[in-house]
Amino acid sequence: MNLSPDPWVWIASLLSLAIFSFLYKENPVYRVAENIFIGVANGYLVTFYWHSILVPILFKPLFQQGRLILIVSFILGMLYLTRFIPKVSWLVRFPIGITIGYYTGYYIPAVIQASIIKQVQGTVLTSANFQAWNAGPWGVVWSVLIFIGVLCTVSYFYFSREHKGVLGVTSRIGIVFVMIGFGAAFGYTVMARVSLLIGQMQFLLGDWLGIIQ
User: Fold this and answer.
1) Of 97, 124, 146, 213, which residue is 20 to 30 A from 116 by alpha carbon distance?
2) Total structural domains in the chain?
């Protein structure tokens, strides 16, 4: 065992062990580490937003370059703080409404283009599908399977008619495809979390304790 002489490695390791103590049960050590993490994260974000966004994008152009139009953004941003003043807390609805409306209008076309139109194009008519048909029997099988899966999944979310007859069969098949998709997504999430755990264990056993290289 070759312990690290770096005090920051010791601090990071002890805080990691404090977080891992939650696996046994919630305890004061875990809560202290949790509050330290939240405090440091918020302090970092406040500093980052101040130096990287507010000062170069708002304050300097407004007060040094005279771009008075930015007063509107400044006032709307300050209205968020009225949430902490009970008598005028209703004013916070204005910046929230403007923000939600702006981002809704901005993201809806992008989501439709990326998640609907491109998905339809990728399923129905792309060069990859033609290549799959020329790739032998398995390419044809996978292309047909994807096409059937898309149609059956869409039919499952068709609620204007009762799921009986052909629609009932396709909707049940769609449920199978939906569950497969959820299972794959959950498996990917678990794999990502296990990867983070492995990285943290490598840090504790390698950088801190020096047991592994």
Assistant:
1) 97
2) 1
One-letter identity of residue 164: K
Domain that holds residue 134: 126-213
Using CB atoms within 10 Å of the CB of residue 179, give its burial: 0 to 12 exposed, 13 to 18 middle, 19+ buried: exposed
Q: How far apart are CA 104 and CA 84, in angstroms?
A: 26
For residue 79 the two structure tokens come to 């209205």
Block residue for tokens 């990859």:
128
**Rounded to an integer, what distance in angstroms lies between the CA atom of residue 138 and that of residue 135?**
7
151 near 167, Cβ under 8 Å?
Answer: no
What's the confidence (pLDDT) of residue 50?
A: 94
What's the pLDDT tens digit per position in 170-192? 999 999 999 999 999 999 999 99
Cβ(1)–Cβ(204) below 8 Å? no
pLDDT digits (tens, 9 = 90+) for 59-110: 999 988 888 999 998 999 999 999 999 999 999 999 999 999 999 999 998 8
